Amino acid sequence: MITGYNTDVEYDGIxxxxxxxxxxxxxxxxxxxxxxxxxxLASKRSPYDDLIAGGFDKEILTRRLQRQHKLICAAVRAGRxxxxxxxxxxxxxxxxxxxxxxxxxxxxQAREPNKANITELPVTKPDPEDYASETLASGAEEExxxxxxxxxxxxxxxxSVTLRVLVTRSxxxxxxxxxxxxxxxxxLGTTFRPESTNATTDGKGIAMFDVxxxxxxxGRAAILFRAEADGEIAELRRIILPE
Length: 243
Description:
Helix content: 10-25%
Strand order of the largest sheet: 1-2-3-4-5
Radius of gyration: 19 Å
Order of helices and strands: EEEEHHHEEEEEEEEE
Strand content: 35-45%
Number of domains: 2
Number of strands: 13
């Protein structure tokens, strides 16, 4: 378990407390909560099963935790509170466990928040559809580097594929390509050793990889793109389907 973060962000006269923590390898989830006056307004859970499967890397987990915390803080600073709530409503199929009943003599401020006040953001699951760029709300990543996989498709074990990724950053309410960014592609899995290869983005911010995906018929696997430019880091994951 690594140390989490607690940040107070003020917007429109209201102080929002954002807490992000690692729940530990026994429950591999990065959990972010947004509070106002002790009530939970929104939460985001991001499992990191892929790190467990590919060999636990504390450094990568720390970066993911930092990034998720910064994204939540950026969304609040940008006044995207309603966006956070609306995202939670669209993802309301994920059930929230009922809050425990407070003790009879507990002070009002010590009670668990009412379930009606809790908005659950979509859970990031290890599923093909969910390995997309994580965006908490439109505009929340304005200051972040971003990696996008071009020509999305399913990835299958044993395939020889050409993968192209675009690296961008925000500039005047738009996104501009980042040339000369270093991009690493790493294959991770439960039944084979991790492998990695590097590339550099061209003038259009695109890096290309010719990859032979590992063969496996049991267990789990994924590819991880990691881009670095001017001290910023961005990651993107996609799962590899077994043969």
